[in-house]
Structures are given as C-alpha cells and as structure tokens.
Amino acid sequence: MTVLDEILENNYEKIKSLRNQGINPFPSRFNITHTVLEAKKLPADSMTVCAGRIALLRLMGKAAFAHINDGTGKIQIYLKKDVLGQNKYELFKKFADVGDFIGVEGRIFTTHTGELTINVTGFSILSKSVRPLPEKWHGLQDHDVRYRDRHLDLIANEKVKKIFELKARIISAVRQALDSTGYLEVETPILCSTAGGASAKPFITYHNVYKSELYLRIATELYLKKLIIGGFNGVYEIGRVFRNEGIDTKHNPEFTLLEAYKAYSDYNGMAALVETLFRKCCEVAGQDVVEYNGMKINLKPPFRRISLPDMWLKACGSDIHEILKGKSFDKGKLISLADKTGAEYAKDTPCSKIFERIFDLKILPHLEQPCFVMDYPTAVTPLAKCMEGDSSIVERFEFFAGKEEIANAYSELNDPEDQKERLLEQIRQRDEEKNQEADILDKDFIEAMEYGMPPTGGIGIGVDRLVMLFAGEPSIREVVLFPLLKPNI
C-alpha cells in the first residue's frame, strides 16, 4: 500500500467515524454573517460567522491555531479547549485536517504578535477533504499538474487566482467600453456549415440528423458582417473560437476572441478603438507599464503607427511590391528574398507562410513597444479593402506589443465582386500550394454582400494575449483556465 493509499483509507475512516457519531461531514448548508475580507474589517470583539478551507493547522495540547481561506482572503482562527469544551475540542483535534472546509463562530481579537484572529466559540465541519493537498501549500510547481489539475493550482498558488480575476476584470472593461460607444453584443453560431472568416484549419464534427459535416468556428467575422449588412451599426462578440493548429506558448486550439465591426468606420477607427480599450485595461489593471518576457513595456496610449512597406524596405532592402504580383505573390521573387534573408521554407511551403517567416525574422524583433503596423499585402488579406490606387496593398493593421500580435483590423472589403475574386485566389492557394489554412469561398456571404454593405471597420483582438500582456505572463497556458493537454493515458 502506498502512502497515498494509506491517507485515503485513513480519511475515509474519519468520515465513517463522524457519521457513526451522528455528524454529517458534508452538510447541505452553512449560514455565514461575513466573508473573511469583511470579517477582517470588523472592530475588535465583534462576533462573526465565517467559513473557508483550512490552509494551515497547528495543534497543541489545549489549543490550536489554523488559517482558513474563503476566496476573499485568509484569517487566523484560535480554538481553545477551555472555550469549546473537551468533547468539541477533541473532535477538532482528531478529525480536522488541512484541506477541510469548516465554518466557525467567534469573536475578533488581535494576538500579541499583531495578527487578526477569530477566537472560536463553535465550529462545523462542512466538507471533509479526502485527498491531501499539494505537498507545499505555497508552491505547486509542476506545470503539467498545474494545468491538468487547475483546482490544485488555484489552491496552492494565490498568484494564479489573481491572474484570472484580472482576466475577468479586463473582459468586463472591454464590454463596458464597447457598450458605451454604440456597439451591440451578439452571439453567432459555433457549429458552422463552412469555416470562413480567417486563415486557419478547422476542427470537423458530424451532425447525425442532417447527416453532414460541420465545423467549429475559426472566427465570427462573416456572421458579424451579415449583421452590419442587416442594419446594425456596430456589433461585437467575445467568444471561443477553435483552430486545429499547433500548441505552443502563444497558441491554444481554443481561445477567446473579441471581434467588433462598426459601420461607416475604417481601420483608423479601429486603431482608435484599440487605444480606448487599452486605456480601460490600464485602469482595471492598475498599471500602464508591465514587465513581459524580459521587456518593460509602456501600455499607455497613444501608440505609434508604422508603415509595413516602409519597414519592409528598411529591414529587407527591397520594395515590398517586388514580391507582389497584383493581389497575389510573385513566388520566385518571394523565394529569392527568403534565401537572402535566411527565412526557412520547404518546397511545399505556401507563399503566405514564407511571407510570414520573413516578417517574423526581419520585422517582428523590432516590435517591442506597442505599435500599429499598417498596410499589408492583399495576397495575405482576402477580406480587406485595397488602398486607393494600389491593389496590391490593403488597409489593414496588426497591433503588436512585446513582439506579439494582439489585434488585427481591416477597412472591410464591401465589393462583392472583388471579394469573390479574392476568395477564389484563396481556393487556388489551397489547391495549388496545399495551403490548408487558406480561407474558403462562402457563397452565402457573397450573396449577403450583394445586398449592400456600408463602409465598415472591423477588428479581432486575442483576449488571452491581451491578458498575457497585462499579467506579464508569456505563456497562454497561464491565462487559460483549462488549456488543452495531451490525454493523460
């Protein structure tokens, strides 16, 4: 028998013994008068009834000290034989363990060491813990255990709980900012008959009644644009999207995405929205300078705007138009530039990926402080409006901070004929270049556009990456409560 087996057996025996004494170790309810946070604000000698998990326990002959934590804070409790009576005190000594939830009643006082404490006059066991908590209450370190058993991580690491509280405040602040500036929050389907709106490989499922394959959405874009076509002036959705892609510190196959669209706006309007949202996030985070991945980053708007063609010329030594052929790439010249810059590629690497690798190699290292990188090739942006007089470049920006992409915005394409041609080019890339992440031709969306779509600005913001930035956490797994992990078989 292992040590764990012995602990489990012993604790189940304690549960049995409690029940034999007529004590329910898992009662249905317990009425408190204060949370721990509220109790700590009470004046001395006030009566309180609190509850929480035992986080620390010191048993002595005729007295015991413990700390309980209820999620709002931690407070010391003091149990004395003379106050509780012998039977009740012995019950606590025999059956209470670190990890148990208990309810206590008593008076607030301060010990001679200056610690606020509840002098317990009565207690109840609310939930008897069977399994032992992590060996070190103040530091469960194994990353796989932390992510797989997030409940233990939250118990053991107070910092983790604060990260997710921050995430909730940031999402709330984003909602408030959008709600107050004319956007309507909506919901769009997660199960879709087509997977459009982004360049990504979808997850596929099957509907038994319709006898057809369905896709988990990779974006909310096309549905939200249909709502703009239908007459809403501004819409947004904060929700999960799913992409069948690799897993690393920046990518989880399901993540939280904010997409917002505003009629009669453009990508400049979306840049202004980013700055509005960052002001709100700085307020709720209580800081505008963060340490992130070894960098000190100032997140206070306004942010600088940089032309991608200008950066490309400076970083690569050539005009970006040299690798472009209208609305597509000149593959030969793109490969030549990749060879020149040292960007890696294989024979079957799609042009869009080669472009991305050149960008990551030559431009991304210079994007430490927040900035908008403006104006991208049409070849990698099938859903954005072309620049006036230059069909090879579109009105698009990506917003970067800490050398990471946080947001992506367009002056949305609203010409159905041009949109159809662009998506046909994506089909060519999928077929000829074997680019499984190329966008698809959604005929329903083209038909919707033919009813007329006003000039529109649109943006997508990776909420998890936004939180990573403000929390100073360079891994997405630190800001997703339950990241996808390899099955533990």
Structure commentary:
The chain has 15 helices and 21 strands. The strands form 5 sheets. Strands 6, 10, 11, 14, 17, 18, 19, 20 and 21 form a 9-stranded mixed sheet that branches. The protein has 2 domains: 3-133, Nucleic acid-binding proteins (OB fold (Dihydrolipoamide Acetyltransferase, E2P)); 155-478, 2-Layer Sandwich (BirA Bifunctional Protein, domain 2). The two termini are 22 Å apart. Helix content is 34%, strand content 27%. By secondary structure, it is of the alpha+beta class.
**Discrete helix count:** 15
Rg from alpha-carbon coordinates: 29 Å
CATH hierarchy, class of the largest domain: Alpha Beta
| CATH fold category name of the largest domain | BirA Bifunctional Protein, domain 2
Please name the fourth-level CATH homologous superfamily of the largest domain: Bira Bifunctional Protein, Domain 2
Average pLDDT works out at 94
Distance between the termini: 22 Å
Please state the structural category: alpha+beta
Poorly predicted runs of 5 or more residues: none
Task: Please specify the SSE layout and strand pairing.
Elements: H1 3-20, H2 36-39, E1 47-59, E2 63-69, E3 74-80, H3 81-84, H4 86-95, E4 101-110, E5 116-127, H5 143-148, H6 150-156, H7 158-179, E6 184-185, E7 191-192, E8 204-207, E9 212-216, H8 221-230, E10 234-242, E11 254-263, H9 267-285, E12 289-292, E13 295-298, E14 304-307, H10 308-316, E15 324-325, E16 328-329, H11 331-341, H12 351-362, E17 371-377, E18 386-387, E19 390-401, E20 404-411, H13 416-432, H14 443-449, E21 456-462, H15 463-471
Parallel strand pairs: 3-5, 6-10, 14-17
Antiparallel strand pairs: 1-2, 1-4, 2-3, 4-5, 7-9, 8-9, 10-11, 11-21, 12-13, 15-16, 17-19, 18-19, 19-20, 20-21
